Amino acid sequence: MTSAVLQADAVDVLPAGFWVHQGAPPTMRLPHRHDDVEVNVVLCGQLDYIFGGSRLTVRAGQIAVFWAATPHRLLAARDEVPDPTRGCWLHIPLTAVLRWGLPEYEIGRLLQMSALIAPVDCLPYDPERLFAAWADELADDRDDGTAMPAPLEAQALLRRACRHRATATAPEATSSDGRPHGNVIAGVTAMAQYIVEHFRDQVSIDDVAAAAHLNRTYAATIFSRSLGTTPGRYLARCRVAEAQRLLITTDKTMLDIAREAGFSSQSSFYEQFTRHCDVSPGGYRRRHGRS
């Protein structure tokens, strides 16, 4: 597992890996995405994100957990917030999280393209002290990260946040006795990961199902039950999120953005973008300061 402790202004160029930060919010000049599970603990003040095109506010005393494959940008602190924002940040590679063997319903919640919000008091310890210990251990160049306690402690934090989430989630795929099907989330994880990695290509439901070695009907059923959306809508959301990032961070033409984000045509790009964002691509670009 890669370990890193970087300065706050370096967050835009972080590679995927285990990362810890404490104190004032890191500067995020542009939206970015990375294949980690991200944990934010707000100690005072509040955090305001643009998360997949929607506003996300995390207030003092709350924990936010999300899969950072969704493009997101931390906004500057608002003047009306009286206390300077201070918190703790943690990145955990998704590959590491999947190796933990978490219960299927918890993995399902993490793979939804939304943030889970939980109260800080769901943790039985002071998060500041825990994050400070992680930062010290990760800063020790003599340690390659393989023997550190941080991954186990991070797993416990993540599970408590998932169990005490305040946001609503979709129903999980269950058997007739109400328990999750064995290997359901393993299949859903493989399908979601395939979509995130290949959304720029022409992807069919057969391609998605094949990533999990399932037939298309069963694949679509368990995907929808676990994540609360169809594979097609999940694919569209990935493409729209990438288009949002390109609209804000580049001067590319609409045709180029449509192609690079994976849309089959410019008309499909306009239709799906407007449906998801309630604004046209051009209007979205103007709203975020680019003409």
Automatic annotation (TrEMBL):
For this UniProt entry, the molecular function terms from Gene Ontology, in alphabetical order, are: DNA-binding transcription factor activity; sequence-specific DNA binding
**PROSITE patterns per the record?**
HTH_ARAC_FAMILY_1, HTH_ARAC_FAMILY_2
List, for all copies, the residue spans of the domain called HTH araC/xylS-type.
Answer: 189-287
Gene3D superfamilies documented for this protein = Homeodomain-like, Jelly Rolls
- Which keywords describe this protein according to UniProt? Activator, Cytoplasm, DNA-binding, Transcription, Transcription regulation
SUPFAM superfamilies from the entry? Homeodomain-like, Regulatory protein AraC
Name the domain of life this protein comes from: Bacteria
Q: What is this protein called?
A: AraC-type DNA-binding protein
Q: Which organism is it from?
A: Microlunatus soli
